[in-house]
Specification:
alpha/beta; Glycerol-3-phosphate (1)-acyltransferase; seven-stranded mixed beta sheet; about 45% helix
Length: about 240
């Protein structure tokens, strides 16, 4: 039953989004900033609706860490497509997402990611991957926050307290632009859909926003192995959420 309650409104929204898309195209010709606000506002509202329709009970902690001055780099573990939905639904600022290149092939999702200026990272092509990281650095310097999943792909392990190895390059935008890193940890989000697809389950999930990591305040060893340092922090928090 929940699947049908989920799908029917989604179909209506998909139809409605074509009207919003057209409006954004027309507005962008005269006022790009206004078009961006409309676009990001629609995506945020859509994601909040998806969370509501899924019936998921989200325990959010550390919400105060989403309030900050200036851009930051958000890094999160990745258990489910709902991680992206929850991020869009809760982040306050206009955040640019970095997704894997394969997402460009996903209808609608890739369209709206482009409209919100999201970037697509090709991890198989070092030159193209570097271009994406450099673009992210420029965006942060331009005042945008950036979000990335340093595991590089969805973690499909049965052990929901596990993390895949982090890609060190994921932290370059924060290092080069000298902005804080805000770690975000998800637990049990795969129980909404992926664990029993195509059925949607009203799962209990947890989302913890950790305190910003100020890179300049770290000691030399922590800076040198920043990826490992933050991964260890997030692993500890994930273990805590699983208790």
């Amino acid at each position: 039953m929940r699947l049908f309650l989920f799908i029917i409104p989604m179909i209506l929204v998909v139809i409605f989004q074509f009207i919003i898309h057209l409006n954004i195209i027309l507005v962008r010709k005269k006022d790009p900033e206004k078009a961006d606000r409309i676009c990001y506002g629609f995506v945020r509202a859509f994601c909040r609706m998806v969370v509501f329709l899924s019936g998921a009970k989200v325990q959010l902690t550390g919400k105060e860490n989403l309030t900050h001055e200036g851009p930051v780099l958000y890094v999160a573990n990745h258990q489910s497509i709902f991680d992206i939905v929850l991020l869009y639904a809760n982040l306050k600022d206009h955040t640019i997402f970095i997704g894997k290149k394969e997402i460009e092939k996903v209808p609608l999702l890739s369209t709206w990611m482009r409209l919100t200026h999201s970037l697509f990272l090709d991890r198989e092509n070092l030159r193209e991957g570097l271009k994406t990281i450099l673009a992210a650095i420029d965006l942060i310097k331009g005042g945008y926050s950036v979000a990335i999943f340093p595991e590089g792909t969805r973690n499909k392990a049965e052990d929901k307290t596990s993390l895949l190895e982090f890609h060190g390059g994921s932290f370059k935008p924060a290092e080069k632009a000298n902005v804080p890193v805000v770690p975000i940890v998800f637990h049990n989000t795969s129980d909404i859909l992926e664990d029993h697809a195509p059925w949607v389950k009203a799962a209990r999930v947890k989302m913890a926003v950790m305190e910003p990591v100020i890179i300049s305040a770290l000691d030399p060893e922590q800076k040198k192995f920043l990826s490992t340092y933050i991964s260890d922090m997030m692993q500890e928090k994930l273990n805590e959420l699983a208790r």
